[in-house]
Amino acid sequence: MNEADENDYLDDINTLPNDEEEKIIREQILNDHLEADLDIKVKKFELASKYYPQICLSIIIYLAIILLIVVLSSLLPSFDIKDTVLITLLSTTTANIIGVLYIASRWLFPSDCDPKRL
User: Does this model's pTM top 0.90?
Assistant: First the structure.
């Protein structure tokens, strides 16, 4: 915008009634707020796109290790693990996987509703 256009714009603003000026200022503030909110959502989506597959991959590797331990304990007599240890291993694995996925999902994809109102 050149200087003449800026002066015309400022003259137009100065001639507006006070309510019109406030309306324009409110709309500019609202627009800035919406742009900032959109920027935050875009960055969060980029994080989700980058880290959520990595979280899923690490869970798959974790499950493969647990499966290997269970299979080895059933096939190899030298790799004997007691039943209570296997039950504990499987139950804590389940709790860990559910917890990690829940925490990652809630952080990356938050709900818009307020949980206090539910």
Answer: no
